[in-house]
Amino acid sequence: MRQWRAGALRELIPISVEAGIEINAILKFVLKRESSWLLAHDEYLLNEAEAELLNQLLVRLKTREPLAYITGVQEFYGLSFLVNPAVLNPRPETELLVEEAIQWGRRIDRPIKVLDIGTGSGAILISVLDNLPGGWGVGIDISLAALKVAVENARRLDCKAAVFLNGDLCSAIQGKFDLVCANLPYIPTQAVIEMEHARFEPLQSLDGGTNGLQFIAAVFKQLEGTVKEPGLLLFEIQFDQGERVVAMASESFPGAQIRILNDLAGLNRIVKIEYQ
Protein backbone atom coordinates (compact mmCIF):
# COMPACT_ATOMS: atom_id res chain seq x y z
CA MET A 1 0.00 0.00 0.00
CA ARG A 2 2.85 2.36 0.77
CA GLN A 3 4.21 2.05 -2.75
CA TRP A 4 0.80 2.58 -4.35
CA ARG A 5 0.13 5.62 -2.17
CA ALA A 6 3.49 7.19 -3.03
CA GLY A 7 2.94 6.71 -6.76
CA ALA A 8 -0.62 8.04 -6.58
CA LEU A 9 0.55 11.15 -4.73
CA ARG A 10 3.18 11.84 -7.38
CA GLU A 11 0.48 11.75 -10.04
CA LEU A 12 -2.13 13.76 -8.15
CA ILE A 13 -0.13 16.48 -6.36
CA PRO A 14 0.43 18.53 -9.55
CA ILE A 15 -3.33 18.51 -10.12
CA SER A 16 -4.89 18.83 -6.68
CA VAL A 17 -4.01 20.83 -3.55
CA GLU A 18 -5.85 18.18 -1.53
CA ALA A 19 -4.07 15.17 -3.04
CA GLY A 20 -3.24 13.60 0.32
CA ILE A 21 -6.82 13.87 1.58
CA GLU A 22 -8.24 12.45 -1.64
CA ILE A 23 -5.81 9.52 -1.77
CA ASN A 24 -6.56 8.68 1.83
CA ALA A 25 -10.31 8.86 1.12
CA ILE A 26 -10.24 6.40 -1.77
CA LEU A 27 -8.02 4.03 0.23
CA LYS A 28 -10.58 4.07 3.03
CA PHE A 29 -13.37 3.58 0.49
CA VAL A 30 -11.80 0.63 -1.32
CA LEU A 31 -10.31 -1.13 1.72
CA LYS A 32 -13.27 -0.28 3.98
CA ARG A 33 -10.92 0.78 6.73
CA GLU A 34 -10.50 3.89 8.88
CA SER A 35 -7.54 6.27 8.66
CA SER A 36 -6.02 4.90 11.87
CA TRP A 37 -5.86 1.42 10.33
CA LEU A 38 -4.26 2.76 7.15
CA LEU A 39 -1.56 4.49 9.18
CA ALA A 40 -0.87 1.39 11.25
CA HIS A 41 -0.78 -0.99 8.26
CA ASP A 42 1.25 0.90 5.70
CA GLU A 43 2.88 -2.38 4.62
CA TYR A 44 -0.47 -3.96 3.73
CA LEU A 45 -0.22 -5.80 0.41
CA LEU A 46 -2.98 -4.77 -1.97
CA ASN A 47 -4.58 -7.65 -3.85
CA GLU A 48 -5.15 -7.43 -7.60
CA ALA A 49 -8.79 -6.37 -7.34
CA GLU A 50 -8.05 -3.65 -4.79
CA ALA A 51 -5.16 -2.26 -6.85
CA GLU A 52 -7.25 -2.23 -10.01
CA LEU A 53 -10.13 -0.38 -8.35
CA LEU A 54 -7.79 2.13 -6.72
CA ASN A 55 -6.18 2.85 -10.08
CA GLN A 56 -9.60 3.39 -11.65
CA LEU A 57 -10.56 5.85 -8.92
CA LEU A 58 -7.22 7.63 -9.25
CA VAL A 59 -7.94 8.21 -12.94
CA ARG A 60 -11.27 9.77 -11.98
CA LEU A 61 -9.59 12.03 -9.42
CA LYS A 62 -7.12 13.16 -12.07
CA THR A 63 -10.02 14.34 -14.23
CA ARG A 64 -11.04 16.50 -11.21
CA GLU A 65 -14.25 14.61 -10.63
CA PRO A 66 -15.43 15.57 -7.12
CA LEU A 67 -14.36 13.07 -4.49
CA ALA A 68 -17.91 12.81 -3.13
CA TYR A 69 -19.20 11.53 -6.47
CA ILE A 70 -16.50 8.88 -6.47
CA THR A 71 -17.21 7.61 -2.96
CA GLY A 72 -20.93 8.41 -3.10
CA VAL A 73 -20.98 10.16 0.28
CA GLN A 74 -20.36 13.64 1.64
CA GLU A 75 -20.05 14.72 5.26
CA PHE A 76 -22.16 17.78 6.06
CA TYR A 77 -22.92 19.29 9.46
CA GLY A 78 -21.89 16.10 11.23
CA LEU A 79 -24.00 13.78 9.09
CA SER A 80 -23.09 11.55 6.16
CA PHE A 81 -25.18 12.16 3.04
CA LEU A 82 -25.48 10.08 -0.08
CA VAL A 83 -24.65 12.10 -3.19
CA ASN A 84 -24.45 11.44 -6.92
CA PRO A 85 -24.30 13.61 -10.07
CA ALA A 86 -28.06 14.28 -9.78
CA VAL A 87 -27.44 16.55 -6.78
CA LEU A 88 -25.09 19.35 -5.91
CA ASN A 89 -22.29 18.27 -3.61
CA PRO A 90 -23.04 19.97 -0.24
CA ARG A 91 -20.41 22.65 0.46
CA PRO A 92 -18.88 23.54 3.84
CA GLU A 93 -19.93 27.18 3.31
CA THR A 94 -23.58 26.11 3.36
CA GLU A 95 -23.16 24.96 6.95
CA LEU A 96 -23.31 28.65 7.91
CA LEU A 97 -26.91 28.73 6.67
CA VAL A 98 -27.75 25.59 8.65
CA GLU A 99 -26.11 26.93 11.80
CA GLU A 100 -28.02 30.21 11.56
CA ALA A 101 -31.30 28.33 11.03
CA ILE A 102 -30.73 26.09 14.04
CA GLN A 103 -29.73 28.92 16.37
CA TRP A 104 -32.83 30.89 15.39
CA GLY A 105 -35.11 27.86 15.68
CA ARG A 106 -33.95 27.12 19.21
CA ARG A 107 -35.14 30.57 20.31
CA ILE A 108 -38.67 30.05 19.02
CA ASP A 109 -41.20 28.67 21.51
CA ARG A 110 -43.16 26.55 19.05
CA PRO A 111 -42.46 23.57 16.78
CA ILE A 112 -40.73 24.90 13.69
CA LYS A 113 -42.21 24.45 10.22
CA VAL A 114 -39.39 24.55 7.64
CA LEU A 115 -39.41 25.02 3.87
CA ASP A 116 -36.25 24.09 1.95
CA ILE A 117 -36.39 25.32 -1.65
CA GLY A 118 -34.18 23.49 -4.12
CA THR A 119 -33.52 20.77 -1.57
CA GLY A 120 -31.21 18.61 -3.73
CA SER A 121 -29.76 15.89 -1.50
CA GLY A 122 -31.87 17.12 1.42
CA ALA A 123 -28.73 18.07 3.36
CA ILE A 124 -30.01 21.44 4.59
CA LEU A 125 -33.49 20.31 5.63
CA ILE A 126 -32.37 17.07 7.28
CA SER A 127 -29.53 18.80 9.15
CA VAL A 128 -31.85 21.51 10.46
CA LEU A 129 -34.56 19.08 11.56
CA ASP A 130 -31.97 16.80 13.16
CA ASN A 131 -31.16 19.67 15.50
CA LEU A 132 -34.68 20.99 16.10
CA PRO A 133 -36.69 18.18 17.73
CA GLY A 134 -40.43 18.55 17.22
CA GLY A 135 -40.07 20.49 13.99
CA TRP A 136 -41.04 19.25 10.56
CA GLY A 137 -40.37 20.42 7.06
CA VAL A 138 -40.90 20.27 3.33
CA GLY A 139 -38.11 19.99 0.79
CA ILE A 140 -39.01 20.86 -2.78
CA ASP A 141 -37.04 20.33 -5.97
CA ILE A 142 -37.76 20.32 -9.69
CA SER A 143 -35.55 17.26 -10.22
CA LEU A 144 -37.09 13.85 -9.56
CA ALA A 145 -33.62 12.30 -9.59
CA ALA A 146 -32.52 14.68 -6.82
CA LEU A 147 -35.62 13.92 -4.78
CA LYS A 148 -34.83 10.21 -4.88
CA VAL A 149 -31.49 11.00 -3.23
CA ALA A 150 -33.15 13.25 -0.63
CA VAL A 151 -35.75 10.62 0.27
CA GLU A 152 -33.04 7.98 0.68
CA ASN A 153 -30.98 10.30 2.87
CA ALA A 154 -33.98 10.96 5.10
CA ARG A 155 -34.57 7.22 5.38
CA ARG A 156 -30.93 6.42 6.19
CA LEU A 157 -30.70 9.21 8.75
CA ASP A 158 -34.10 8.39 10.28
CA CYS A 159 -35.49 11.85 9.58
CA LYS A 160 -39.23 11.15 9.65
CA ALA A 161 -40.08 14.86 9.96
CA ALA A 162 -39.06 15.64 6.37
CA VAL A 163 -41.41 15.43 3.38
CA PHE A 164 -40.15 15.90 -0.18
CA LEU A 165 -42.18 17.28 -3.07
CA ASN A 166 -41.58 17.73 -6.77
CA GLY A 167 -42.16 21.29 -7.92
CA ASP A 168 -40.78 24.37 -9.65
CA LEU A 169 -39.34 26.53 -6.87
CA CYS A 170 -42.21 27.04 -4.40
CA SER A 171 -45.11 28.03 -6.67
CA ALA A 172 -47.20 25.05 -5.50
CA ILE A 173 -46.54 25.49 -1.79
CA GLN A 174 -49.49 26.50 0.39
CA GLY A 175 -49.64 27.66 3.98
CA LYS A 176 -47.15 29.60 6.07
CA PHE A 177 -43.72 28.62 7.32
CA ASP A 178 -41.59 29.69 10.26
CA LEU A 179 -38.29 29.13 8.50
CA VAL A 180 -37.39 29.21 4.81
CA CYS A 181 -33.98 28.01 3.62
CA ALA A 182 -32.75 28.19 0.05
CA ASN A 183 -29.49 27.37 -1.68
CA LEU A 184 -30.70 28.13 -5.19
CA PRO A 185 -28.60 28.34 -8.37
CA TYR A 186 -26.86 31.73 -8.06
CA ILE A 187 -23.83 31.53 -10.33
CA PRO A 188 -24.07 33.62 -13.55
CA THR A 189 -24.31 31.52 -16.70
CA GLN A 190 -20.95 32.63 -18.13
CA ALA A 191 -19.17 31.82 -14.87
CA VAL A 192 -20.71 28.34 -14.84
CA ILE A 193 -19.36 27.71 -18.33
CA GLU A 194 -15.86 28.54 -17.08
CA MET A 195 -16.03 26.36 -13.94
CA GLU A 196 -13.95 23.20 -14.06
CA HIS A 197 -16.15 21.09 -11.80
CA ALA A 198 -19.42 22.21 -13.47
CA ARG A 199 -19.13 19.37 -15.99
CA PHE A 200 -19.65 16.87 -13.18
CA GLU A 201 -22.46 18.60 -11.26
CA PRO A 202 -26.09 19.18 -12.31
CA LEU A 203 -26.20 22.35 -14.40
CA GLN A 204 -29.65 23.31 -13.14
CA SER A 205 -28.26 23.44 -9.60
CA LEU A 206 -25.56 25.94 -10.55
CA ASP A 207 -26.79 28.21 -13.34
CA GLY A 208 -28.60 31.24 -11.94
CA GLY A 209 -29.15 32.97 -15.27
CA THR A 210 -27.38 35.97 -16.78
CA ASN A 211 -26.76 37.79 -13.49
CA GLY A 212 -27.11 34.79 -11.18
CA LEU A 213 -30.26 36.17 -9.54
CA GLN A 214 -32.99 34.72 -11.76
CA PHE A 215 -34.23 32.11 -9.28
CA ILE A 216 -33.76 34.18 -6.13
CA ALA A 217 -35.85 36.97 -7.66
CA ALA A 218 -38.58 34.50 -8.66
CA VAL A 219 -38.72 32.92 -5.22
CA PHE A 220 -38.93 36.29 -3.48
CA LYS A 221 -42.14 37.00 -5.40
CA GLN A 222 -43.58 33.56 -4.66
CA LEU A 223 -42.83 33.79 -0.94
CA GLU A 224 -44.54 37.11 -0.27
CA GLY A 225 -47.03 36.57 2.56
CA THR A 226 -45.97 32.97 3.31
CA VAL A 227 -43.65 33.59 6.28
CA LYS A 228 -44.95 33.67 9.85
CA GLU A 229 -44.03 36.28 12.46
CA PRO A 230 -41.61 35.70 14.00
CA GLY A 231 -40.13 34.14 10.91
CA LEU A 232 -36.81 33.77 9.11
CA LEU A 233 -35.64 33.38 5.52
CA LEU A 234 -32.06 32.42 4.70
CA PHE A 235 -30.66 32.55 1.16
CA GLU A 236 -27.17 31.51 0.13
CA ILE A 237 -25.62 33.91 -2.39
CA GLN A 238 -22.45 34.51 -4.38
CA PHE A 239 -19.82 36.71 -2.75
CA ASP A 240 -20.63 39.78 -4.90
CA GLN A 241 -24.45 39.64 -4.78
CA GLY A 242 -25.14 40.87 -1.24
CA GLU A 243 -26.25 44.44 -1.90
CA ARG A 244 -28.39 43.50 -4.90
CA VAL A 245 -30.17 40.70 -3.02
CA VAL A 246 -30.76 42.96 -0.01
CA ALA A 247 -32.36 45.55 -2.30
CA MET A 248 -34.62 42.90 -3.84
CA ALA A 249 -35.54 41.53 -0.42
CA SER A 250 -36.44 44.99 0.87
CA GLU A 251 -39.10 45.27 -1.82
CA SER A 252 -40.53 41.77 -1.32
CA PHE A 253 -40.44 41.67 2.49
CA PRO A 254 -41.28 45.17 3.83
CA GLY A 255 -40.90 45.43 7.57
CA ALA A 256 -38.35 42.62 7.81
CA GLN A 257 -34.85 43.09 9.18
CA ILE A 258 -32.35 42.21 6.46
CA ARG A 259 -28.67 41.44 6.98
CA ILE A 260 -25.76 39.97 5.07
CA LEU A 261 -23.77 37.24 6.83
CA ASN A 262 -20.15 36.58 5.86
CA ASP A 263 -18.49 33.18 5.68
CA LEU A 264 -15.19 32.25 7.34
CA ALA A 265 -13.31 33.85 4.44
CA GLY A 266 -15.03 37.16 5.15
CA LEU A 267 -17.11 36.99 1.96
CA ASN A 268 -20.84 37.64 1.63
CA ARG A 269 -22.53 34.25 1.84
CA ILE A 270 -26.03 34.45 3.37
CA VAL A 271 -28.83 36.99 3.18
CA LYS A 272 -30.85 36.83 6.39
CA ILE A 273 -34.42 38.15 6.27
CA GLU A 274 -36.12 38.16 9.66
CA TYR A 275 -39.56 39.10 10.91
CA GLN A 276 -39.56 39.82 14.63
Task: Explain the layout of strands and helices.
Layout lengths: L1 H11 L6 H13 L3 H6 L7 H15 L4 H5 L1 E4 L2 E4 L12 H11 L7 E5 L5 H8 L5 E6 L2 H13 L5 E5 L10 E6 L6 H6 L19 H10 L3 E10 L5 H11 L4 E6 L5 E8 L1
Helix pairs in contact: 1-2, 1-4, 2-4, 6-7, 10-11
Description:
With 276 residues, the chain is of the alpha/beta class. It has two domains: 2-63; 73-275, 3-Layer(aba) Sandwich (Rossmann fold), CATH 3.40.50.150. Helix content is 39%, strand content 20%. It contains eleven helices and nine strands. The protein has helices at 2-12, 19-31, 35-40, 48-62, 67-71, 95-105, 123-130, 144-156, 189-194, 214-223, 242-252; strands spanning 73-76, 79-82, 113-117, 136-141, 162-166, 177-182, 227-236, 257-262, 268-275. α2 packs antiparallel against α4 and α10 packs parallel to α11. The model has no long low-confidence stretch (mean pLDDT 95).
